[in-house]
Amino acid sequence: MNTNLYNYILGLADNSLILGQRLGELCGHGPTLETDIALTNIALDLLGQTRSYYQYASSLKGEEYTEDDIAFLRTEREYVNCLLVEQPNTDFAYTIARQFLFDSYHLLVLTELQKSTDLTISAIAKKSIKEVNYHYRFSSDWLKRLGDGTEISKEKMQEAINSLWTYTNELFLPTEAELAISESGVGVNPEVLKAKYYDMVQNVLEESCLETPESKWFQKGGKQGIHSEHMGYLLSDMQYMQRAYPNMKW
Amino acid sequence: MEQNSSIDTTLYPILEQVSDPEIPVLSILDMGVVRKAIIENNTAFIEITPTYSGCPAMDVIADDITAALKHAGFKSKVKLILAPAWTTDWITARGRKALEDYGIAAPLDAEADKAVLLGNKQLVKCTNCGSNNTHLVSQFGSTACKALFKCNDCQEPFDYFKCLK
Ligand SMILES: [Zn+2]
Hints:
The structure holds two protein chains of two kinds. Chain A contains ten helices and no strands. By secondary structure, chain A is mainly alpha-helical. Chain A has a single domain (about 5-210, about 220-245), classed as Ferritin, core subunit, four-helix bundle (Ferritin, Up-down Bundle), CATH 1.20.1260.10. Chain B has a four-stranded mixed β-sheet with strand order 6-9-8-7. Chain B has a three-stranded mixed β-sheet with strand order 3-4-5. In chain B, strand 8 (about 145-150) and strand 9 (about 155-160) form a beta hairpin. The longest helix of chain B has 15 residues, at about 55-70. Chain B is elongated. Chain B starts with 11 loop residues before the first helix and ends with a strand. At the A-B interface, helix 2 and helix 6 of A face loops of B. The complex binds zinc ion. Zinc ion binds next to loops of chain B.
């Protein structure tokens, strides 16, 4: 098995799975019916994308290790999602800030992956980018609406951006798998997306009447399996059924 | 694309009986999710592609296809493919009409769709009274493929099938 390819796919998939799980928590709890439905629709897209990646990963590893095993039966240190996506739904401003900061990155990655020399990855990227365009439209829309809204909405939006900013730099610190896989043309080295990302994000923040944080101190670790304190709670929720009833199916 | 050449004419009427469980008026052929349907050694080989990655209807559609073919005397193999990615352009003219009759506004072309979803233009026609005087309520509607609109004239809410290209 090509371990770098396998780990690379897990990186892509875990980001989508964990963010999907976070958004899924809002099902029935969104601030309005429309945003509730929008957020869970986005969760569903992300989950669908995750399944495509895990099915591919499972085929690389051997069929006895299924997509469900990958999704539900790993330990915390074996998940390689970035720290950003596991951050909690503190309030609607945080939910939107996290989504916007991730969507911007996701779009740039998928744009590159459409050109992947690996046909499965390029197929998943071409499919997913259509959906992520809608996610980005939703999150950047709300960012503008709240940033350029009332005094309170602006303050909350700014606070959420400031707080989550510390997780953005990790997106661009390449893992061993990302370095190896980008050399073969299968994946993308995130370092090359960094300047474009911060440009893109800064433009939308300006349009939203929000400040771009100046902090130069960043958190890292998720992509190496070292997660924030929130991750364990998320996993215990997500893995409960498979742990309590091994091999159960709907 | 009314008649897809990669769909065997014997299988056509059978597949036409299968519909998307979330939009029962639309056959999977009119939806454009069947990309290939051929017969080899009395086994039907069907390739379907999802509208959206997370579309929960795909498993049901695959099961319904297998059941319909079995009923017609065929063994079958249904395969899910991702490329080329589905686009709303593959919905047939008959499919668009069925959507409208069902109360779901059919997708506009990509440019118009963008203008509409950004709230710049009123181009989506109310499926109840036909007025263009409508507004976007939410970019995401009852399923991933739809947005929620409301008519400013008759006040009815309705779904709009988002353009996916
Ligand atoms: Zn009307």
